[in-house]
Structures are given as structure tokens and as C-alpha cells.
Amino acid sequence: MYIVAIAWLYVALMMAITERTAVAAVLTFFAYGVAPVALVLYILGTGARKRRRKAREQQEAPSPSPAGKGATNDAGSVSQPD
């Protein structure tokens, strides 16, 4: 995926080099190169961001307490040790 982005940035850079003024070159590079590549990489990375967020949330979730002193049962009441 990144090789295509790098290749497209190279093409946009070559297009920018052929412009007559520096301002036109910068605008061409950003309009035809950086902006589209950033948008496409952001959209294609959505699934990976969701998976990372879900994995992080599962790691941060509190683990259930072991049965015993002060442990709660399914009904939400506190079980007493024998």
C-alpha cells in the first residue's frame, strides 16, 4: 500500500517540477500529491484503527474478581464466605 503512495508522490513531485512558478509548484504538489494520498491512507487505515482501539479497550477493561470475599454473584448481591 505504501509503495503506491510513494510512487504517486513521486509523480506529483515531477509534475510540480515542471510548473513555471514556485507557488504553482507547491500548490500542484499539495493538491495532486499530498492531499489525495493523505485522504486515501486515512480511509484505508480505518479498519486497523478500529481493531487497535477495540484491543486497547479490552485490555483496559476490569477483570472479574475471583469468587470469595466480597465477590458479587450474577444477581449483583455480595456473596459471603462460609
Q: How would you explain this protein's 3D organization?
A:
By secondary structure, the chain is mostly helical. It has a domain at 2-58. Helix content is 66%, strand content 0%. It contains 3 helices and no strands. The protein has helices at residues 2-17, 22-44, 46-60. The mean pLDDT is 84. The chain crosses the membrane at residues 30-48. Keywords: Membrane, Transmembrane, Transmembrane helix.
Put the structure in a nutshell.
With 82 residues, the protein is mainly alpha-helical.
Uncertain segments: none
Calculate the mean pLDDT score and round it. 84
Q: Tally the helices.
A: 3
Q: How would you sum up the major sheet? A: none
Secondary structure category: mainly alpha
The H-and-E topology, N to C, reads as: HHH
Percent in strands? under 5%
Write the layout of secondary structure elements.
Elements: H1 2-17, H2 22-44, H3 46-60
Helix pairs in contact: 1-2
Organism: Cupriavidus pampae
Region (Disordered): 53-82
Keywords: Membrane, Transmembrane, Transmembrane helix
Key phrases:
rod-shaped, mainly alpha, 82 residues, single chain
